[in-house]
Amino acid sequence: MYKKSEKELINRRIFIGKSLLGVAAITAAGCSGDGGKQEKSTAAPQAKQAGMTVEELKKMVKIDSHTHLNGLKPEEEAPLFATLKEHNMRWFDICTGGMKLDYDKIKLAASMHRKYGPWVNWATCFSLENWGAAEWRQDAIKTMWEGFEAGAVAVKVWKEIGMVLKDPDGTYVMIDDERFDPIFDYIESNGKTLVAHIGEPRNCWLPLEEMTVNNDRLYFKEHPQYHSYLHPEIPHYIKHIEARDRVLDKHPGLRLVGCHLGSLEYDVDELAKRFDKYPNFAVDLAARICHFQVQDRDKVRDFCIRYSDRILYGTDLGAGYKYMKTGIDETIEKINTTYEKDYRYFATDEEMEVWEVDGSFRGLALPKSVLKNMFHDNMLKWYPGITV
């Protein structure tokens, strides 16, 4: 774990005080899995509830809420699903598209869902390639409709909105742009969920050497086009958070699951503020669990217990040569390693070390009821219609 304090890690030029992250509170009617009003989380932390062992958690039916299938070969299916069954882990395959949408990903997701049923549920997406054209909105709705007909229960929007997509005058298009409102209305009217990867971790606006976790440092080193510190023309971190919050303001009946801890990974207190304001907002943990591991352990544990109905276990794991760039053996090794370390972190209070962070930390030893929510029940609540 890094020895520097959080304040020391924040570049003065881009430091954002917590006061800027506040937004006006609203009274919003949220959606639950059965279409009723979703209540705010009010349960106090109960540290003495019974927990689970690693083996018990491994045997429990679970759903990874954030995975990707892309380029999976027929001969790779058997070993992949044999591994998932060893973990009793279903996958939620999220199709990511935008500026250059690969429709083969959508076809593969629909095919895997037809073939494997509850082992592969999925989210579709839509193209931004003809943004600004008269037919863009209808084309996007057509793609979503086709996905819903094939079993998709959600629609993904990606960080290209706000970080890449521009109008002809060079202005970046943010997620709260009114031209997206009919898209969000369509998703809500069909009882589906919006899966939103908007912005990036706050580390994205820091130089590599000041980032708080190693996986962010590696990702932005390998993907400099998304390292906003190198591209000051990209709207600042807080602009993406504010735009996402305005979507929640404008669409209080839309279920919205924020990918990667909703890009508020650096401080569970900031996430708690959003959960209290927006009853229709939840987050997945994909590729951001390490950000819990560099925060105060007891605060993170209390947060997970208090908001256990708003947090979905997810990893960002994937399979297929277009996603992993490696063979099925390496894919299976990564799946096993990732799940085993996550079981330990959430179910035990053991001292641990992982490559993503420097130094050691203790597991959270979460109660059984919290683990059941995070690893399974919340998927049914936030993605109604999934095959179980």
Give an account of the 3D structure:
The structure is a single chain. With 388 residues, the protein is α/β, with parallel strands linked by helices. The protein has a single domain, classed as Metal-dependent hydrolases (TIM Barrel), CATH 3.20.20. Helix content is 41%, strand content 11%. It is built from 17 helices and eleven strands. It has helices at residues 6-9, 18-21, 54-59, 74-87, 103-116, 136-149, 160-163, 181-189, 214-222, 237-250, 259-262, 268-277, 289-293, 297-306, 321-324, 328-347, 368-382, and strands at 62-69, 89-94, 120-123, 154-157, 193-196, 255-258, 281-284, 311-312, 317-319, 351-352, 361-362. Strands 4-5-6-7-8 form a five-stranded parallel β-sheet. β10 (351-352) and β11 form a beta hairpin. α6 (136-149) runs parallel beside α8.
Number of domains: 1
The whole-number mean of residue pLDDT values reads 90
Multimer state: single chain
In CATH, what is the class?
Answer: Alpha Beta
Give the overall silhouette: globular
The H/E string reads: HHHEHEHEHEHHEHHEHHEHHEEHHEEH
Q: Give the fraction of residues assigned to helices.
A: 40-55%
How many extended strands? 11
Rounded to the nearest angstrom, the distance between the terminal CA atoms is 39 Å
**Which percent band covers the strand fraction?**
5-15%
| Rg on CA atoms, Å | 20 Å
Which blocks of ≥5 consecutive residues have pLDDT under 50?
1-47
Number of helices: 17
- CATH topology, anyone? TIM Barrel
What's the main sheet like? 5 strands, parallel
